[in-house]
Amino acid sequence: MNLFRLLGDLSHLASILVLLHKIQTSRSCRGISFKTQALYVAVFVARYLDLFWRYISLYNSAMKVFFIGSSCYILYLMKYRYRPTNDPSIDTFRIEYLLVPCAILSLIFNYNFMPTEILWSFSIFLESVAILPQLFMLQRTGEAEAITTHYLAALGIYRALYIPNWIYRYFTEGVIDPIAVTAGIVQTGLYLDFFYVYFTKVLQGQKFELPA
Amino acid sequence: GSPPSSHDEL
């Protein structure tokens, strides 16, 4: 564990708490893509079910349980408790365009051709693009509540912090994980446009609005 | 470097 990874994980944790806070206090999931949230459930289940056969640390296991549990709970809130506030007509990204390529990529790029490793690769590839339905929705509506942008910023910062973590691990431990690094760089890249607007507008107290 | 097979990251 190093500081970059710890702060990255905490940022990931914070993003989920911010999202839960937004939904609970506004009693609404307006502006949140159900498809992105469903993809995160798939990502966490595919990757973290290894907690039944691989023990790393209490920290690692507790985080895995939290990510699976909280993502399922968010899906429940969107699908049942606050269903009327969820508008599927603006959540139109076709997720099969993400699922199918990620499935193919995971069959080609994995560290061992066995179900658990293929699932791990699949989850890494899927996570890197899971935010696209959400960003697509943002692009369509052209604006977002400040709290939604804080959620997205924390989520983007999480993966961005993993990059210095990998560089640090390369020099201190000599390990490199080409699948995670490639997908992680792609994932962080997807946030660059968003980050630009977030840091130049939202953090200056302006509304998050995309140019028409 | 070699790839970590332990998947110790989240």
UniProtKB/TrEMBL annotation, chain A:
Q: Where would one find the signal peptide in this protein?
A: none
Give the subcellular location. Answer: Endoplasmic reticulum membrane
GO cellular component, alphabetical, reads:
endoplasmic reticulum membrane
User: Which molecular-function annotations from GO does this UniProt entry contain?
Assistant: ER retention sequence binding
Identify the domain of life: Eukaryota
Keyword line = Endoplasmic reticulum, ER-Golgi transport, Membrane, Protein transport, Receptor, Transmembrane, Transmembrane helix, Transport
| InterPro entries to which the protein is assigned, alphabetical | ER_ret_rcpt
Biological process annotations from GO:
protein retention in ER lumen; protein transport; vesicle-mediated transport
Question: Transmembrane stretches, by residue range?
Answer: 52-76, 97-113, 119-138, 150-167, 179-199
Lipid bilayer topology: Multi-pass membrane protein
* Main localisation: endoplasmic reticulum
Q: Which family does it belong to?
A: Belongs to the ERD2 family.
List the PANTHER family.
Answer: ER LUMEN PROTEIN RETAINING RECEPTOR
Its recorded name reads: ER lumen protein-retaining receptor
Name the source organism: Pleurotus ostreatus (Oyster mushroom)
